[in-house]
Amino acid sequence: MPDLAYLNGKIMPIGKATVPIEDRGYQFGDGIYEFVASYAGRLFMLEEHLDRLERSMGELTFDAIAREDIKKAILELFEQSGYPRAGIYIQISRGVAPRNHAFSRGMSPQFVMTIRAVKELPKSLRENGARAITVKDLRWGRCDIKSVQLVPNCLAKQKALDAGCDDAIFVSDQNVVREGTSSNLFIVSDGRLITHPLTHNILPGITRLAILGICHSAGIEVQESFFGIEELYGADEVFLTGTITEVLPIVRIDDKPIGDAAVGPITRRLYALLREKALADTPA
Ligand code: PMP
């Protein structure tokens, strides 16, 4: 089965797909993206990803591409690849024009995608839990937009790996725990979940949304409220959520154990419930 690229309406091998050097996504980071995954041949929460994609484009005032056209292209690429467990990266930039900070209306957005088989996280990480560091949140004030401007996220992730850890957690100057470099964050305290509310400072994660729904059905209490680093260190359990991350336990942060430094029962249960939902959901 082939890894494929989609480039403004054409499907081709990834190595053959190139964009013009004056693409504004390339020169200004003037682009947005999505990442959708499939389970057993079905794309998980595709409509929710499309909702977020449309919102990101709207917030950056891109000229619109019809939702139905985007969806059709995604499904066509997915079908051509034949991967049952696929990861589809979707990127839309404002368009191509001679370099100028100001942009004109009526540009044609550039729409590209790649599809590959999902590389699952190591089993040992899921079974033993991951280690994280905290880092200062140096990102811009609109982290709710899924923009391709990810340099602070890349630097933070690399800092974590260089420190022998698995990921980094952004904490604001005012001591508010935000999210991971490519994931949302939940803490468990006295049997109740707490996660950052939806503001301009975090991405409205689709997996976060799935977890909120799962908790609602399972009768697990969730509070969307701000919390600081002391509550993070003192939590019974901490986990990250994301399309590839799914539900990933964090057992050490800044070299301090979380709870008894083992994967907790609520994290374990939510991972199982998320997988169950992903495998049961009907195709979009
Ligand atoms: N926060 C950030 C900063 C992310 O990059 C991601 C992954 N795209 C998430 C949260 C999780 O979002 P999702 O569950 O939609 O993958």
Automatic annotation (TrEMBL):
Pfam families: Aminotran_4. It comes from Desulfosarcina widdelii. GO terms for molecular function: transaminase activity. GO terms for biological process: amino acid biosynthetic process; carboxylic acid biosynthetic process. Keywords: Aminotransferase, Pyridoxal phosphate, Transferase. Gene3D superfamilies: 3.30.470.10, D-amino Acid Aminotransferase, subunit A, domain 2 (3.20.10.10). InterPro entries: Aminotrans_IV, Aminotrans_IV_CS, Aminotransferase-like, BCAT-like_C, BCAT-like_N, Class-IV_PLP-Dep_Aminotrnsfr. One of its GO terms (cellular component) is cytosol. It comes from the Bacteria. Its cofactor is pyridoxal 5'-phosphate. This is D-alanine aminotransferase. Belongs to the class-IV pyridoxal-phosphate-dependent aminotransferase family.
